[in-house]
Amino acid sequence: MTMYAPGSVTELQAVVRESERIHIVGNGSKTALHCAVNGAAIADLSGMSGIIEYQPSEYTVTARAGTPVRELNEALRQKSQYLPFDPLLPEQATIGGTVASNLSGSRRFRYGGVRDFILGAEVVDGEGRTFRVGGKVVKNSAGFDLSKFLVGSLGKYAIMTELTFKVFPDVPRFRCLGFLFEALEDALSAIYFINQSAYELDALDLAPARSVPPINRGKKDGNWKLLARLAGFDDTLPQRVERFSAAMTGDTATIQVEEIKDSAALWNPLADLSGEFLVKVVIPPKQLPAFDVLIAHDHRRYSVGGNIAFAATDDIAQLDAALDASGLTGLCLRGAVDSAVIGVPIDNALAERVKQVLDPQRKLV
Amino acid sequence: MNRAVIEALELIYPSDRLLTRDVELLPYESDALTAFSAVPGAVVLPINEEEIIDTVRLCHQMALPFVARGSGTSLSGGSLPIPEGLTIGLNRLNRIKKLDPEQRIAVVEPGVINLHITEAAQPYGLYYAPDPSSQSICTIGGNIAFNSGGAHCLKYGMTSNHVLGLKVVLADGTVTTFGGESVDGVGIGPDLVGLFVGSEGLFGIALEITVRLMPQPELYRTVLAAYNDLGAAGDAVSMVVASGLLPGAMEIMDRLAIKAAEASVQAGYPDAEALLIVELEGEALQVGAEFDQLLDTIEESGAFEVRVAQNEAERTRIWKGRKGAFSAVGRLSPDYIVQDGVVPRSRLGEALVQINELKEKHQLDVANVFHAGDGNLHPLILYDGREAGALEKAEALAGEILALCINLGGSITGEHGIGMEKRDYLPAMFSEEEIDIMQALRRAIDPNEIANRGKMFPGGEAPALSQHGMHPLERAGLISRE
Ligand SMILES: Cc1cc2nc3c(=O)[nH]c(=O)nc-3n(C[C@H](O)[C@H](O)[C@H](O)COP(=O)(O)OP(=O)(O)OC[C@H]3O[C@@H](n4cnc5c(N)ncnc54)[C@H](O)[C@@H]3O)c2cc1C
């Protein structure tokens, strides 16, 4: 296997032109994405790293694709700003890998995902051409928006070399509450209650009570824990927490409430998901009860208000079957698989047309 | 239009939904960029998705150019008919097929009016966030084509950010769906919703749209600040941003726009060189705390008068003048062109100075209204189409404004799209190779280039320039722009 570590766009272009098939690695943090590339050359983009332009007053930041998310987060934190889509693997991933695999964390709940904060990109396509898509200002509707298309594109259409994002001011303080429910349906009803209320939560995740690390006090299997995080100013947070907590105990089937100390571990939805394979599933919350029955033996967390499921399992075939049966698609992040996409295939006529234009020789895998 | 085409269309449409006579075609000859008009070969009015699909397939087979039309409020000539082509009017597909307040989503047909979604969602404490000033008449299909925005898009984004799933018929007749009811949208695999939104009707027609709804903010706090100097209002925006606040809206109007708004809706605005509207929205306790901070900042920014809306009626009044500004300017002048350029927020002041210089140079009046929070300018260039050469002069000024936006590192359009109007400026923003790639993509989807032919890409024949006038529907008394 040929390995390349291009240090510049020009070098990357040369690599693409010379290779028959090529596969891109950011930092290799999502092992499953790099399994099925037998024979393809590998280009490691971690050498194309660094923040190019950060203008806090414009709410925009531009960085090379191989920039570690950690570095980007730290630069933003110094100016009290953040990437509101909340990159899922802040300690391991590169920003390019995060966009290519569309991996948002729990805080996606508040303002939106990668697609909502990407403004533009510079890419090298399968023909070795380099060009810009999207723009660098927070608002732009000129031309086809290929920058959004890149979100989730898994490096198969064009290789991102530079990315521009919209950023937001971050809030100074957090408080977290855990609500315990007898059954999944009760917890989902509570999510629906929140969805129609004016309480603005920073994050909202759901998990079997036993699997939530600091609070695994569920009395029995079947108990569910809803984790809610509020963000804001010191002087109003206590009152807001109280109000929210009272509404939840009054209007939902909460059987127990507790305040939990806020921590990075608490809001890492993958923290306690052990198993050979780890999979992201995009799911409407109303499909959760039927799906949950099928994966009841797996470690799982239903993040972003129950819209994104993360499941860990040792039996990937069984999970694949569960996805198929539910009409869902999964993206395998960890474990050795033939194809990172499992369940219902994602082939699409429109995506195929883009492939014909950007990578007609089908070099990018 | 040739007989064979009409006969083929007659197999799909009864005669009352297939318009071919001149008087029937007249209301469709322009959109809201009234300087241009063209007579379509025919107009069809489908009532369901099957008819749209059959029509697009027919167009593909016969290489017949078509343009989808919602309410025809495009300001860039996007829904301008293609001479001798087919206009597909989508207004009758106006059903909200599903409203699920628990998951905060709605599934709608393309001809649904933007504001109708909010009206349907209101009883559940929800609303549809993107709020173009035309929201009481424009359709979701049109919003998708242009990725339309509004005054309240700073925090939660434009149309693209609120569309989760789409069913579309591509220009070659292929029907495909992507995304769904999860807020993560497409989620796995390339974001096709993101690609389709903003494609200006060149990829095909959106048949069914899944949108996300948002909870209505518990509290709005709206402040109106008056300045003696336009630059100071621009600086105030930067100060608000620097203070770490994230308002729901930040809008500026200049003297001429204020005057127009006053004359038309009597909003009671102070006499000033510039007005800044800032609105905070969200959970009451949080907004309360933020509002104190906002008022301190506004105080420091040198405003000579600050008004705080004390109740919903006062808030509505503040917004009425802003939202009606376009039509108000229409009363000051027989004709106007609206521009839609974007500049980096920190360069707003510079942009305004330069626009002023250009307006002196061209001896034309320009009213400025803009989404200051995201640097999106809406200069309204006033002219009288009855004067020979006036339109050309206004267009020359418009072109120079676009050039200055690009020079300052911005974009030629924030939300109105390229359409017919700005197609010759696309090369100023994108390289030849970038345009080639976009064109190749267009042809990969639409080999005959029938979908909205003549828009977005430079070149091609321009439809007739009519000298001036109102929107045909306005002229017919069917719509007004309030
Ligand atoms: C007074 C006034 C104020 C306005 N304010 C704003 C504003 O604040 N913000 C803003 O962004 N815009 C604004 N606009 C512009 C305009 O209202 C928007 O562009 C709107 O989205 C157009 O919607 P429509 O239904 O009128 O579309 P049309 O004008 O009928 O069509 C617009 C484009 O959409 C395409 N199209 C229509 N339906 C479909 C479909 N189903 N699938 C694919 N393509 C389709 C058409 O082919 C055309 O290219 C304003 C216009 C006016 C007249």
Provide a short characterization of the protein structure.
Chain A has about 375 residues and is α+β, with helices and mostly antiparallel strands.
Full CATH superfamily name of the largest domain in chain B: FAD-linked oxidases, C-terminal domain
- Number of β-strand runs of chain A: 19
Just give the CATH class of the largest domain in chain A: Alpha Beta
Structural class of chain B: alpha+beta
Describe what this molecule looks like in 3D.
By secondary structure, chain A is α+β, with helices and mostly antiparallel strands. Chain A has helices spanning 9-18, 69-77, 95-101, 108-111, 114-117, 146-150, 184-195, 237-251, 288-294, 316-326, 349-358, and strands at residues 3-4, 22-25, 41-44, 51-55, 60-64, 81-82, 118-125, 130-134, 158-166, 168-169, 173-181, 203-208, 224-232, 256-260, 277-282, 299-303, 308-313, 329-334, 341-343. Chain A has three domains: 3-169, Uridine Diphospho-n-acetylenolpyruvylglucosamine Reductase, domain 3; 173-260, Alpha-Beta Plaits (2-Layer Sandwich); 277-343, Alpha-Beta Plaits (2-Layer Sandwich), CATH 3.30.70. In chain A, 26% of the residues lie in helices and 28% in strands. Chain A is globular. Chain B is an alpha+beta fold and 482 residues long. In chain B, 34% of the residues lie in helices and 20% in strands. Chain B is built from 16 helices and 18 strands. In chain B, helix 8 (255-265) packs across helix 11 (325-332) and helix 12 packs antiparallel against helix 13. The two termini of chain B are 36 Å apart. Chains A and B meet through strand 8, helix 6, strand 10, helix 8 and strand 18 of A and helix 6, helix 7, helix 9 and helix 15 of B. The structure holds flavin-adenine dinucleotide.
